[in-house]
Every structure is written in C-alpha cells, then in structure tokens.
Write a structure and sequence with these properties.
Among the domains are: 357-450 and 605-621, Four Helix Bundle (Hemerythrin (Met), subunit A); 473-591, Methane Monooxygenase Hydroxylase, Chain G, domain 1 (Up-down Bundle), CATH 1.20.58. 42% of the residues lie in helices and 16% in strands. α8 packs across α11 (325-338), α8 (216-231) runs antiparallel to α15 and α12 (343-359) runs antiparallel to α15. InterPro entries: Kinesin_motor_dom_sf, Myosin_head_motor_dom-like, Myosin_S1_N, P-loop_NTPase, SH3_Myosin.
Length: 623
C-alpha cells in the first residue's frame, strides 16, 4: 500500500499512515471486555478500563489514572486497534459518539483532516496550511473510485464529476458547518479541482476569452478573491468569514468539458458597512485599499491611509495578524483584470467604496430652537458628492429636507439629526449592497461563454451557524438559513443511508434527524412565528422594539419549546430572548430589528443617484 501512496507525493503522510505505523498500532494491548469509554465533565468522554462490576454499577480506571464509578448503561465499548484512525467511520464495530470523536481526534492529531462517515466527508479545520492540494494530488484523485484513495475533498469532487457523466444528471455538493469550520476554503478546493482537470483535458487547444482576460479556468478561480474582498470580513469566530451565501454552478458539456460558470449570492450582511463589534472589522476591501499598496487609489478616493480617520470602518479592529492587506489588494485588483473588468468599471467601484467612507464622516447639528438638522461643515459631503458624480448642495438638501409624496403632490419634510444619521447609514448600505450584487452579475457575464452546456455541478457555501456574545437580526437570518440547510442535509442523508442499508439487506430502525430541526424552523417561519410577528409589527406606526418583544413572549414563551428567556450573564451584552438552535442556544438582542426589516431609503437622494454623472451609480438605482 505504501507504493500506492507514492503518487500523492509530499501529501501522502497527511492522507494515510504508512504500513509500518498501521501495523505498530495494531499490536497495542487491548481487551474487548474491559476497554470502554466513560462520560466525563470536561472532555465529554474518556477512555477507561473496567476494574470491577457490582450489580449495574461499574468501577473503572480512566486513562488519566482516576477511579470512577458509573452505571452500566453509561459506558460504551472501545473498538479493537485494527480500527484506529479508520478512514470510513461506518466500518466501526461500535458506532457511537465517543468512537466518532476519538477517531476524528486521532486522525486530526496526525494532520489527517478528512474522514468519511458513511456517505459524507467530515473535515476538521487545521487552522494552518497543509500540502494536500497541489497538482500532484489532483492528478492522483483523477478518475479513482471513493474506496480506492484516502478521504479528500478532491475525491468528493471527482465522484460528483464521474456521477454526472455516467448518470447524466446534475450534481450538488453541500458544505455545512458552523462559522470557521472551513466551508469557504473547501468550496475553493472543489472549484480548483474542476478548473485544474478541465485545464489538463484542454491542454491541446487553449481557448481564451476576450483579449486581456484570463482563460475560463482562471476566471472561475479569480471570481473568489474579487467577491471575498467585498463580501468577507473578520468576525469573532473567523478572520475570513463569508458574510454572504453563494451557490456556484460549474457547467460542463456533454463530454465533461468545462463550459461556463455562474454564481448566485444570498443575504449579504449590510449592517457591517456602517457598524462593527469590538473584535471585528468591516469588509476586507477598505483595509486593502488603506494598506497604501496602490497609492493612486487613495488619491482617487480622496482618503488618508489611516482607517481611524473613518467612522464606518474603525469601530472594531483594523488589522488582522493572519492577513496581509497590501498583498490582498493586489490580488483583488488583478482578479478584476482577469475577469475582464474595464478600468472605468474598476475605478467606479473604488470611487463608490471611498464615497461610503466619507458618508460615515458627514456631521449634522440641530438648528437653534428647532427640531431641524443642518450640515455641520460640508467637506465630507463635498468629497462624497465628487466621487458619486452628484452636486454636494443637492445631496445635503436631500438629506436634511427630503421631498415626500403626499397624495398627488410633493411636500418638503423636516428631519432631526437622528433621522438624517439613519438616512445616511441606510443609503451607504444600499449603495454597497447594490454594488456587490452588480459585481456578481458582472462576474457572471464574464463566466458566461457561448459554449454548449449539458450538466452542472453546484457547490453551496453559506455563512455558518453563529453564536456570539451579541446576536442580532443578522445572526437570526444566518442561523435560520443553517437550520434549513442542516435539515435538508440530515433528511437527505437519512433517505440515502436507508437505501444503502436496504441494498445490503440490513434490518435497521432509522431515525430521521431532519425532523429534529422542524420545531425551531416553525418557530421562525410559520404564521405567527418570529418573522411573521416582525412583519406585522412593521405595519403598525406605533410599534417599537419593546412591543415586538412583548408580542414574541405572548405568543411563544411557555408555548414553544425552543423559545425561552435569555440567560442574561453579568458582563455580557443585554439579550431579550433565547432560541434553541441545532448548533446550540443563542441569546438574541432585538434592538433595531424593526428598523432593519423596513430599511427605508431617502427617496430624494435616491433620485439624485439615478441622475448621477457616475454611470455605475445611476445604473445601480435605475429601476
């Protein structure tokens, strides 16, 4: 078997242990009757050896040398040594939680991060770079059955490709997991795999897109850095957290030749554009630009290279040890080039990004003896307006004295300072979100070739489950999406696993774990669930965050098992209700949810955007 592993090159030891090591492991002392797992406060389960039995009580000594007494029904048997670090956990003689945990832990300790569990592949994030993704490894997985090679995301990818061609049907790869589990990195690996095998198959005839653009394979890979710059950010859990979901379809011709690709995105977290928690950052793009790696951008955007000069991007951290913002800027900028963005398109994106930074610095003050707001200095408005192709005086007038339609005529409405600040934030978020969506559409135009396409392989990568100290509406949306995906995943796997067992004639009582999630999903999405109560409250002019909370409690406290009072912990931010999610209990703070759900835009300023001299901005608000 060691010879078989030679083709994996330097990756081999990270994928499968040598024959020598495997044989050595099998000679360790083991007693099937005595070696067990016992529950443990700190570690969930620890290995132990039975010392004596008394009725239904068992005394055992743990691997840490502690003597414990447990009930017989609390112990679980260890698997014989030949199953150590097994590649597919469905093969274990004793299949239970501690056996799975210890197997994953032992493999992880040897840097083997991929393990099969029946039909799916479990990945543990190593939080460091492992040499298991190079071209040699791609070639080694090419065309192999799953059972013929060690577990790997490339094996999953190649099998999807083979199944697509043999069964003549589209395939999907679902990647689930909590925030920071490694979903986005593995998504990139899937895409890299298809791009590389397509390139190998196409060596003879290189087709390039328009001059100056990269090949289709390059473009598919470069879509990632472009979207990550504007859609990923540092959170408490993860330095490069995707703050949006994406479904990437890679299209192939009838013979399996790469034809084109497209990306659908969901739920970009808009609030981050104007607000960050203490240990977080705004989207990467801001810090990339301010790295001063391309000084001409700072000049064009009229900004300094100090993030603390800009309120919208400096409420949390501004640097991340694991990220070199300067290098990332070069990667983002060159990704735009590979994708065929024109200099005008690129500059428009940078200008709008800069305009948002200036938006956050506009100041307003209350007029004397009136509720009316007026500009407190115009310098920042002048810069924003210049970058956005607007007239600065019109912009300020639109913010402080918007015209609203009443019946058939327009009237000018007064605004206090708080209302103007809200309007500025909402407009900044809208520009950013529309710009992001435009970028996705623009990237799709580049990835759309005229080549015939027959099948696609879809890869889903969503923002993972999140449990922070402070959880708001955004976390509810992300966790709800995960709840739905996890249910689909569990149910789908349950159906497939059942078919496998039937094929092999095994009698087995299955539990559909998909159903476990239904109660939480209903609580959020059913009529009179959280979302519907939120919608209803948004209709009432007098509704507030507190009337919303009261309605939630009236309808669900004591009535829905997954809904509860928050565990308000000293020193932690205030919370208003708790939900029991698949990934754990989350305490939510409801301040500002009505505002976030309505998210009204100042129509007067939107009208100015529509007539902007900057083509891209006028375009974004055209409809």
């Amino acid at each position: 078997p060691d010879v078989e592993m030679a083709e994996f090159g330097e990756a081999a030891p990270y994928l499968r242990k040598s024959e020598k090591e495997r044989l050595a492991a099998q000679t360790r002392p083991f007693d099937l009757k005595k070696d067990i797992f016992v529950p443990d406060e700190k570690e969930e389960f620890v290995k132990a050896t039975i010392v004596s039995r008394e009725g239904s009580k068992i005394t055992a000594e743990t691997e840490h040398g502690k003597t414990v007494t447990v009930k017989e029904d609390q112990i679980m048997q260890q698997n014989p040594p030949k199953f150590d670090k097994i590649e597919d956990m469905a093969m274990l003689t004793f299949l239970h939680e501690p056996a799975v945990l210890y197997n994953l832990k032992d493999r992880y300790a040897s840097w083997m991060i991929y393990t099969y569990s029946g039909l799916f592949c479990v990945t543990v994030n190593p939080y460091k770079w492992l040499p298991v993704y190079n071209a040699e490894v791609v070639a080694a997985y090419r065309g192999k059955k799953r059972s013929e090679a060690p577990p790997h995301i490339f094996s999953i990818s190649d099998n999807a490709y083979q199944n697509m061609l043999t069964d003549r049907e589209n395939q999907s790869i679902l990647i689930t997991g909590e925030s920071g589990a490694g979903k986005t990195v593995n998504t990139k690996r899937v895409i890299q795999y298809f791009a590389v095998i397509a390139a190998i198959g196409d060596r003879g005839k290189k087709e390039t897109g328009a001059p100056g653009k990269g090949t289709l394979e390059d473009q598919i890979i470069q879509a990632n850095p472009a979207l990550e710059a504007f859609g990923n950010a540092k959170t408490v859990r993860n330095d490069n957290s995707s703050r949006f979901g994406k479904f990437i379809r890679i299209h192939f011709g009838a013979t399996g030749k790469l034809a084109s690709a497209d990306i659908e995105t969901y739920l970009l977290e808009k609030s981050r554009v104007i607000f960050q928690l203490k240990a977080e950052r705004n989207y990467h793009i801001y810090y990339q630009i301010l790295s001063n790696k391309k000084p001409e951008l700072l000049d064009m955007m009229l900004v300094t290279n100090n993030p603390y000069d800009y309120a919208f991007i400096s409420q949390g951290e501004t640097t991340v040890p694991s990220i070199d913002d300067g290098e990332e800027l070069l990667a983002t900028d060159s990704a735009f080039d590979v994708l065929g963005f024109t200099p005008e398109e690129k500059n428009s994106i940078y200008k709008l990004t800069g305009a948002i930074m200036h938006f956050g610095n506009m100041k307003f003050k209350q007029k004397q003896r009136e509720e009316q707001a007026e500009p407190d200095g115009t310098e920042e408005a002048d810069k924003s307006a210049y970058l956005m192709g607007l007239n600065s005086a019109d912009l300020l007038k639109g913010l402080c004295h918007p015209r609203v339609k009443v019946g058939n005529e327009y009237v000018t409405k007064g605004q206090n300072v708080q209302q103007v600040i809200y309007a500025v934030g909402a407009l900044a978020k809208a520009v950013y979100e529309k710009m992001f969506n435009w970028m996705v559409t623009r990237i799709n135009n580049s990835l759309e070739t005229k080549q015939p396409r027959q099948y696609f392989i879809g890869v889903l990568d969503i923002a993972g489950f999140e449990i922070f100290d402070f959880n708001s509406f955004e976390q509810l949306c992300i966790n709800f999406t995960n709840e739905k995906l996890q249910q689909f995943f569990n149910h789908h796997m349950f159906v497939l696993e059942q078919e496998e067992y039937k094929k092999e004639g095994i009698e087995w009582q299955f539990i559909d774990f998909g159903m476990d999630l239904q109660a939480c999903i209903d609580l959020i999405e059913k009529p009179m669930g959280i979302m519907s109560i939120l919608e209803e409250e948004c209709m009432f002019p007098k509704a507030s965050d507190m009337t919303f909370k009261a309605k939630l409690f009236d309808n669900h406290l004591g009535k829905s098992a997954n809904f509860g009072k928050p565990r308000n912990i000293k020193g932690k931010p205030e919370a208003h209700f708790a939900l029991i999610h698949y990934a754990g209990t989350v305490d939510y703070n409801i301040i500002g949810w009505l505002q976030k759900n309505k998210d009204p835009l100042n129509e007067t300023v939107v009208g100015l955007y529509q007539k902007s001299a900057l083509k891209l901005l006028a375009n974004l608000f055209a409809n």
